[in-house]
């Protein structure tokens, strides 16, 4: 089989295989349903994210205006450039997504076939393979979905108004605000409605949350990170801290730490093979990145205040090395080769400041190498500044700066250990790569109703069983769960082979499922997303998503050589 570069799967010779062997999910059905509901903490989290966004942008603009009034035009220009350029990049990307989602990119026949497949029978299947032929034969029965150019005058006026409204939103650099508000609205609507409207709003809310988390993560490391280094360098050179400078630097640092943790939470929530992250764990992860990024940027600022040219060379060299390291790891985030290269280059920018997981499996060695590299670089940059600092910098002030860098990095490392040892979603981690065994009631494992096939995504997200990394790398032939269950004494062993749940419509995607920490294809391929939303909205029963199962290394090799 082969896959198009735009993410549309096409099967050349192989039929879509049957569902992979089942493995049990220890969570009972009522628990899975409870996890799907939009909660008050989710609403408060979105509102806090909006507050972080406004505080970061407003403080930077206020500081730029203050530089201009003080006739410090050089600082004014640099501050304004690091605000405008990243914002324009994010607005262009956001408007491109909107234009694709709002225009007629999915053929009417395909969408009609999806609706028929969902509503025709309880066990209907819709496959991305040969979807054009199936849709052509059923479009007359299901009706053609209205595109942007169809419909009456009222509908045309509404669509024209939406285009105008979104253009104004993006021109005024408020795309992030609109997407946050839209995600908040979808979450509240999913809370107020009942099935089937509730699950449709929940699907849309998860897609909207994924979009805004990607956009804000990109914006944070293009805007907040260089802005933080710039303001710290100005403060160190001037040997004084203006209130607006401190406010801007603090807002940028909080925005960076917030978005890294928020991105990880939304990613885990979207992956059904991973347990969701609690807000307690998110807060600890924010503290982890807050102190490590703070120490990193302060070391950058100290060195840049003395050696501006060498600092630029160091940043470019570090970025090139990190990008090559990421590319060498063969990530699988995007749907095409060039998008993957661009993504790796963007992650290289993130690696300049903090750790960011891009590969599945044991992260112990990779994280240890990165942490030691960052520690050595921080020590070297701070030592060089201490030895070559200007005469206006006293020894007491220099020692204070060195202690702040060291203590901040130590605190960040402490919160990192707290997260992995106590608050990791998969349970306490021993040895940075092994999950500590958890006690799970045996009766939950023995229930056939809790069984789902691997590579099957039920709707809404967060409902698939957990799988271990080595199992995904070797295929479905390896048995066992990520948690080793120790049954109580006297209890009978659970039934090993459970009947997989097969009722309800199934959306079969003729692509292998991407490995964590990558997004699923239906989150990053907007055509798949659009088709799934049409199918889900017309389905009487919550549909499941099943990806192609590559069970043998030979089949994996054949697939990779044909993509």
TrEMBL record:
GO cellular component, one term: plasma membrane
Pfam families tied to this protein: XK-related
Residue ranges of the region described as Disordered: 1-29, 452-502
Keywords, sorted A to Z: Cell membrane, Membrane, Transmembrane, Transmembrane helix
UniProt cross-references to InterPro entries, sorted A to Z: XK-rel, XK-related_scramblase
Localization: Cell membrane; Membrane
Protein name in UniProt: XK-related protein
